[in-house]
Structure formats: structure tokens, C-alpha cells
Specification:
The protein has 91 residues and is α+β, with helices and mostly antiparallel strands. 20% of the residues lie in helices and 18% in strands.
């Protein structure tokens, strides 16, 4: 975002704000939104966020969204459940 002097204003985005923006643009309510650790540590103007949706109600999301005044690229990843294994018997 730019101010009246064409200077970049870095606005802090939090999970709640991003969740509402995604819901308004896709008509889907996210279950969880998390900022990537690398984005948090780099303190750059561009960041990476992960949004999770319920798989049973998931509807395809466009590859590009207009959210919070910027163009956002979207990619879909499917998370695999962690397999828990016993350290003693390996079952």
C-alpha cells in the first residue's frame, strides 16, 4: 500500500484479517491460517501464508486472487497425515 507521498506502507497482516479476505473472495471459510516461518524471520514485504480448508467441503480456488489490495498467487498442496510409529516395537 502507498501513502500520499508514494511511499510504501507496510501494514501488518494477521490471521483473522487474511481469513476474512479469503472468505470474502472465495466464499469458503478457512480452518487454519499460518504464516511461513521463513517469512516471519525474513521481515520482507512479501510473505508466504498457508490456508487450510475442510477437505469435505473444498471448492476449487482460482490460481490468482485479489486480496487486501494486492494480487496473490495461489497453489494447492495436500497435506499427508503424520504416521505415528512405536519406537520400541516399530508397529
Amino acid at each position: 500500500m502507498f501513502n500520499d507521498y508514494s511511499e510504501i506502507i507496510n501494514t501488518l497482516i494477521i490471521e483473522h484479517i487474511l481469513s476474512e479476505a479469503i472468505r470474502d473472495n472465495t466464499n469458503q471459510q478457512s480452518v487454519k491460517i499460518t504464516q511461513a516461518t521463513r517469512s516471519i524471520n525474513s521481515m520482507l514485504f512479501h510473505t508466504t501464508w498457508f490456508a487450510s480448508f475442510p477437505s469435505a467441503k473444498h471448492i476449487a480456488i482460482p490460481r490468482v486472487l485479489q486480496i487486501l489490495g494486492t494480487t496473490v498467487s495461489v497453489s494447492v498442496t495436500i497435506s499427508k497425515p503424520k504416521i505415528i510409529q512405536c519406537n520400541k516395537c516399530y508397529l
